[in-house]
Amino acid sequence: MTAEFTPLDESQCLRLLGGTAVGRLVYTVGALPAVMPVRYRIAADGSVLLHTNAGSEIARAVTDAVVAFEASELSETDGSGWSVTVLGRAGVTSDIAASHPVPAPLSTADWVTIRIRPELVSGRSLPASPACEV
User: Fold this and answer.
1) Dmax of the chain from CA atoms?
2) Which of 47, 102, 107, 109 has a CA 20 to 30 Å removed from the CA of 10?
3) How far, in Å, are 3, 8, 46, 56, 107 from residue 119 at the CA level?
4) Under a CB-based contact definition with an 8 Å cutoff, are residues 48 and 116 in contact?
5) Domains of the chain
6) Which residues does 14 contact at the CB level (< 8 Å), separation at least 6?
């Protein structure tokens, strides 16, 4: 018997996102999907905040674009865990208070804070499986 995913409500999803620091930003470049691991924080309003270089591919591609953001924690030993996806419009923010909790960028080059305003938040949890097989 296979364990089934259990849907998570939005408040559970945001709580789980608040407990991790690395996720995956999904955006498009030249009409093709791109996925980039990023360090992030969740703002009080549920927005996803991340830093990037002002001239980076991410900054160019996500400004005023609909993007996806995903973070997860999955156990390699028993298969348990969760995954949360946020869909929303991304944009550069200059709100210092909003960008304050985001981890500092790796360099001091010109960087910007990207805010993803959530329009759809979904998540699933997966219980432990006695026979976790790949």
Assistant:
1) 52
2) 102
3) 29, 16, 10, 25, 31
4) yes
5) 6-126 (2.30.110.10)
6) 42, 46, 121
Tokens coding 73: 């924690």
pTM value is 0.85
User: 95: closest CA among 117, 112, 119?
Assistant: 112
SS3 readout for 55-106? CCHHHHHHCCEEEEEEEEEECCCCCCEEEEEEEEEEEEECCHHHHCCCCCCC
Tell me the two tokens of residue 6.
């259990």
- Give the rounded distance of the alpha carbon of 32 from its chain centre: 19
- The β-bridge partners of 71 are 84
How many CB atoms are closer than 10 A to CB 81?
16
pLDDT tens per residue across all 134 residues of the chain: 455 889 999 999 999 999 999 999 999 999 999 999 999 999 999 999 998 888 899 999 998 999 999 999 999 899 899 999 999 999 988 765 555 555 555 555 688 899 999 999 999 999 988 665 55
